[in-house]
Amino acid sequence: MSDVRFTPQMTIQHLVSQRGIHIEEIGVAPVVILTWSRKLVDYFATQIGAEPSPHWLYPERFPLFNGIIKGHTVSLVYASVGAAGTVMVMEELIACGARSFVGLGWAGSLQPHAPVGTLLIPTACLREEGTSFHYYPGEVTLSPDRTLVDNLQQTAQELGIQALEGLQWTTDAPYRETIAKIEAYRQQGVLGVDMETSAMLALGLYRQVRVANLLVVSDELWQAWNPGFRSPELITATEQARLVVERSLVKISQLPS
Predict the structure, then answer these.
(1) Residue 219: beta bridge partners?
(2) Across the strands, what pairs with 32?
(3) Is residue 114 predicted with pLDDT exceeding 90?
(4) Domains in the chain and their CATH numbers?
(5) Please, what sign has the CA dihedral across residues 226, 229, 235, 239?
(6) What is the CB neighbour count within 10 angstroms for residue 76?
(7) Rounded Cα distance, 189 and 54, in Å
(8) Pairing verdict, β 119-128 and 163-171
(9) In this predicted model, what pLDDT tens digit does every residue of 186-213 receive, in sequence order?
(10) N or C: which end of the chain has fewer CB within 10 A?
(11) Model's pTM, two decimal places?
């Protein structure tokens, strides 16, 4: 028996019963690319010829797109910024059949050797968001699916693109990234900071689905704040990251559930 009052499956069943459709009509693929930029998800969808799902829970605000890459169906979804909203959407996607998630987004850098435009693949997390603790206590180590990480890294190398692997800091409070904390984490070797990764990894472990993130450094925090938003370096690196994810999808789609 479930230990919660209502489940993601209940939410989806309520939705489909209200609309008079079957879950399959929502069209969620086993492999989902998740991003936190509407502009990026729209662009990605255009590049692979993906179409919006009219039956998704949030078709206007947080749309879901479905497309085919070399014979493999994939889904693209726009998620709200932050751990709680991202994990809620992922729970609902899992209830619809999703089994692998690749997050494509941005991060602040804590290291001089990871300037704006650097690609990061988090392999472990410092947890300072609240969502993950509803799935696992603090002493549990959270890691991404190694097969997804290897696929992303191999694809990046094939394209001549460098992606740094390492420790990531996830926080709910971007405006409380204090100087003292940034310096302490920098000395510990933490590469970057974001708002979703650790919660996504906790959900992946709990629901036994594959999760990994590929993030692009958008701003530098190891010294006086250097925002690289809309910089040529960030635009170029984001397209490189999108290409890495796209080229990885065929391999990921062939992984067992």
Answers:
(1) 108, 227
(2) 75, 101
(3) yes
(4) 8-253 (3.40.50.1580)
(5) positive
(6) 25
(7) 44
(8) parallel
(9) 999 999 999 999 999 999 999 999 999 9
(10) N
(11) 0.96
